[in-house]
Amino acid sequence: MSKPIYVIGHRNPDTDSICSAIAYAQFKNALGEQAVPVRAGKINAETKYVLDFFGIQPPQLLLDLYPRAKDVMHEKLVTIHPRNTLRKLGQLITQYNVKSIPVVEDDGSLVGIVTVGDLAERYVSELGMQDLRETGVDYAGIVGCLNGTLLCGSDLSKSIQGHVKIAASHTQTMAKVIKPGDIVIVGNRTNAQLSCIEVGVACLIITGDYEIEPEVEAAAIKAGTYIFRTPYDTYTCARLINQSIPVGKVMKTKVTSFKPDDMVADLKNVIIRTGYRNYPVVQNGKVVGLIDRDRLIVPERDQVILVDHNERSQAVDGIEEAKIVEIVDHHRLGGLETSEPIFIRHEPVGSTATIVANMHWHRNIDISRQSAGLLLAAIISDTVLFKSPTTTAKDRDTAQKLAQITGLDIQEFGMGMLQAGSVVDKLSPGDIVTTDLKEFQIGEYHVVISQISVMDPEAVLKQQKQLNAALQEICEKGQYSMAILLITGILSEATYLLHYGQPSGLIAAAFGEGRSDGTWFLPGVMSRKKQVVPPLIDAVRRDMYN
After folding, report:
1. Do residues 323 and 342 touch, judged by C-beta distance below 8 A?
2. Is 182 strand, coil or helix?
3. In this structure, are residues 44 and 422 in contact, taking their beta carbons and an 8 Å threshold?
4. Which of 476, 64, 535 is nearest to 262 (CA)?
5. Residue 15 to residues 42, 285, 352, 398, 505, Cα–Cα distance (Å)
6. Whole-structure pTM over 0.90, yes or no?
């Protein structure tokens, strides 16, 4: 299944940003595309009121678009249990053409990793037959590797404590070489078999699928000797026994692993430093995927549609790592670059929702009551119930059509919505100054401007000292030249401006002298983008030419 296209608004989203993302995702889905609305920040009180009013869940929060381990890992991975044998390991490596395999317990928890190199090293280091006393090999492991049949004995989980020997010499010579507790490979030589049992060997391995004589079986039962029968010859048995060692004895227990949400940029640094071929991805101690370093070269990028913004400074973190496929907006062009031509719908209207609604009608796609309500709310919010100078005739006409679909009274619904968003009693000064905050590059200055619309601006100004401190914190933390807060009165249709930062004379140059309390009162100012940002840009330009 292909990854969906994310439809996302700007950081510190307002009602237009959230509602237009939801409605546009539904529009794209109606056209047969797989789109999902997401948000780049916290839902404000006004937007929450709108979503609750129409019974819609907030979009998923997406804090950044940086590719992560989960985006480049193999989810269908091969694992092996620490008690499985090296023979099983070799079979898996051959079958799945992999270079390393995570070692996991029954519950999926990671305990190690084993590689082709570990397997090869084991064979290269072989000097004759194995001493199995320290390897943890049990009888079940040997039977499995030899494709054997148990003829005598019972507890296959019992560990082997002796050396592996081949009974190829005279019985008298064998008695000098074979010791009690050894494992002996022997053919269909009855005397040799009985001699080994008499010495006290732990196990006989009968090659060539030969039957044993009744007296051999009786002697083995009496002595407690295990007997296996295998179809392989002596040479093959000797080699296969060396593969009966449990994986847990050769695996690396110090594993370099990642978490699903680790960023790919960080993974690359670790991979360059360590140089392994594969890395397990672990969540809550359990393996959920495997990263092949070769897959990190070109990770699949997320596809995104930007609504209600087109500037990198306002976009979700990591936007440069994603593939922008569309932009639908009503703001100034902000210089975002794309790798290839894309679809852009950009109009000088009061709200992105106006554009989205008309795109539905242009393509003859019905708008549901819920979507119509969201789009209506977004237009009301961005135009401050049509009081903002950004309002156009197209906004008004679109709102009227949407109101007919919803059956709502625009004035009544709009006032209820704006009142819900203007309640600041439960907001801290930090919350107030980050409400609907946007970044702007004004000349050489990096400026952030936040705006909050309220019924009673004077009530907010009572916290002026705390608000100034919050602006200072934002400015210093984000290394901005200036932080500005606009407190807009919905009923008074005026704005109070507070600021912190440099150059100190920029605000006065744009709006004249302020009040004695350090604020600016701007009658008739309702729009940040049309009545605040342009005067600031003009003030910077005048300063450049003076």
Report:
1. no
2. coil
3. no
4. 64
5. 11, 40, 10, 17, 33
6. no
